[in-house]
Write a structure and sequence with these properties.
The complex is a heterodimer of chains A (274) and B (156). With 274 residues, chain A is an alpha+beta fold. Chain A has helices spanning 9-17, 33-38, 71-75, 78-83, 85-92, 97-100, 105-111, 118-124, 215-224, 231-241, 252-271; strands at residues 2-4, 21-23, 43-46, 56-58, 62-66, 128-133, 136-141, 146-148, 151-152, 159-166, 170-178, 189-196, 199-205, 212-213. Chain B has 156 residues and is of the alpha+beta class. Chain B has helices at 27-34, 87-92, 102-114, 124-127, 139-155, and strands at 6-12, 15-21, 53-56, 59-62, 75-77. The interface between A and B is medium-sized, with 32 and 31 residues. The structure holds flavin-adenine dinucleotide and FE2/S2 (inorganic) cluster (2 copies). Residues 96-101, 133-136 of chain B line the site of one FE2/S2 (inorganic) cluster (FES). Residues 42-45, 47-52, 62, 64 of chain B line the site of one FE2/S2 (inorganic) cluster.
Chain lengths: 274, 156
């Protein structure tokens, strides 16, 4: 096993291009430590020394989370709490404080798990991912970042350097996670929902091979707005958008049923509000 | 399959240390086997149980998930740095039985005591959710932390 600890982004990118695995908070990577170290040929590039990846910044259009921003960094930021409660709701569901203090939003994106809890919240807010590689920089909408199970558009030489979250006025946001317990549990069924002048966003996790937006659900929500859609329509749309599997954590039937009921009751809390 | 060792410097319990580590070393092992600090325990080795909790730059982290090379230049505090007096409220509330979880529980509890303003937004249960205990049933732990926080506020 080899480790590079660069101090500039350019060095980090050249290591990534050579096949080094980036390490941020290591909460995904080191959780499989015995397996990983058995393979002595692995090489890692540590991102933790890269100051250009740190920090939370605000512009008129965006909240920008540097790639090393942890869940805890956002949970203790009063401005993020005030303007993006959806991000905070999701962060509080990730692991527990010992994970929130180390795990990064960018690591959650790059890891590519369909059960990721940070990704649906970011995707429901139309976040974009800034990638930097040997040929420069590009920005990809998060809802076009995944191409399949744990597959992404990120090039071999590319790193995530920041996440951009557009600043909008939201009339409603909600985050739900169903798991065996609240803390330290992998999501069986989850979603993030948001409504702004740009319309409805519904993003599901653990309901398909990737975290994904639900275009049919968004369309019926937009059509029936401000009322929630009828339950049969909601179920029909959900079955078009989602392809849950049965695995060690749950069954496809359970996931489908709980998703539909939880989404319905979440939308009901919205209309119950003045 | 050669392992190049890495030379790193960091602050451990208030003192500067410089050591050679293997690239794949976890902070938990460096503390226990290189530095002789056996307070942090290995329960699960995968971030679930919190028995290995230490403070990194003032925040609770699972040392089983921290590559040692990442602590270069940073501040690490372990349970050995804390006053044994911290245990009293936990003992009084029945928060200790076999003791396997206790070093991690105490590290989380000390962090809550030092940041008690967090309790306006987070419950003790939420902040202690990353510390599993197979013996006590948690109520004792929650009461112990409440008592610890209250004694600190009384003392201040
Ligand atoms: C006990 C435990 C509980 C957990 N609970 C949850 C949970 O409830 N919900 C949840 O969603 N996740 C959970 N996780 C998973 C993990 O904590 C999150 O996915 C976290 O966000 C990962 O971030 P990290 O910085 O630790 O990533 P790392 O482990 O450092 O990296 C993860 C992946 O991302 C890549 N990567 C990291 N940063 C970059 C970058 N800037 N550019 C390109 N690639 C990059 C790495 O190469 C690696 O493939 C849990 C993990 C543990 C151990
Ligand atoms: S041993 Fe580190 S969390 Fe269990
Ligand atoms: S006292 Fe035995 S695990 Fe907590």
């Amino acid at each position: 096993m080899k480790v590079a600890c660069p101090t500039t982004l350019a060095e980090a990118i050249s290591h990534k291009a050579l096949g080094f695995t980036p390490v941020a908070g290591a909460t995904d990577l080191w959780a499989h430590w015995p397996v990983r170290t058995a393979n002595h040929d692995l090489s890692y590039v540590d991102l933790s020394g890269l100051h250009e990846l740190r920090g939370i910044a605000w512009s008129a259009e965006h909240l920008t989370l540097g790639a090393l921003t942890t869940y805890w960094d956002t949970m203790q930021d009063s401005r993020v709490n005030a303007e993006f409660p959806l991000l905070i709701a999701a962060a509080r569901y990730v692991g527990a404080i010992q994970i929130q203090s180390r795990g990064t939003w960018a690591g959650n994106i790059a890891n590519g798990s369909p059960a990721a809890d940070g990704v649906p919240a970011l995707m429901a807010l139309d976040a974009r991912v800034r990638l930097v590689g040997s040929n420069g920089e590009r920005t990809v909408p998060l809802d076009r970042f995944y191409t399949g199970y744990r597959a992404t558009v990120m090039g071999v030489d590319e790193l995530i350097t920041a996440i951009l979250v557009p600043r909008r006025t939201y009339s409603f946001t909600a985050f739900e996670k169903v798991g065996p317990r609240r803390a330290q549990a992998i999501t069986k069924v989850g979603f993030a929902v948001a409504h702004s002048a740009d319309g409805w966003r519904v993003v599901a996790n653990s309901m398909a091979a990737t975290v994904r937006r639900c275009p049919s659900l968004e369309a019926i929500l937009n059509a029936s707005h401000p009322n929630p859609p009828a339950e049969p329509d909601l179920r029909a749309a959900a079955s078009k958008d989602l392809a849950p599997i049965s695995d060690i954590r749950s069954t496809a039937e359970y996931r489908t049923e709980v998703f539909a009921r939880l989404l319905r009751s979440t939308l009901a809390t919205m209309t119950a509000r003045p | 399959m050669s392992h190049d060792t890495m030379h790193i410097a960091f602050t451990l319990n208030g003192k500067a240390v410089e050591i050679d580590v293997l690239p794949h070393e976890r902070l938990l092992d460096t503390l226990r086997y290189t530095l002789g600090l056996t307070g942090a325990k290995e329960g699960c080795g995968e971030g679930e149980c919190g028995a290995c909790t230490v403070h990194l730059d003032g925040l609770p982290v699972n040392s089983c998930l921290v590559p040692t090379f990442q602590v270069r230049g940073r501040d690490v505090r372990t349970v050995e740095h804390l006053s044994p007096a911290l245990l009293a409220p936990l003992h009084e509330c029945g928060a200790t039985q076999c003791g396997a979880c206790t070093p991690g529980v105490v590290m989380a509890a000390a962090w809550i005591r030092d940041n008690s303003h967090l309790l306006s937004r987070f419950s003790i249960r939420e902040l202690m959710a990353g510390n599993l205990c197979r013996c006590t049933g948690y109520d004792g732990i929650v009461h112990g932390v409440e008592r610890l926080v209250a004694s600190e506020q009384g003392a201040a």
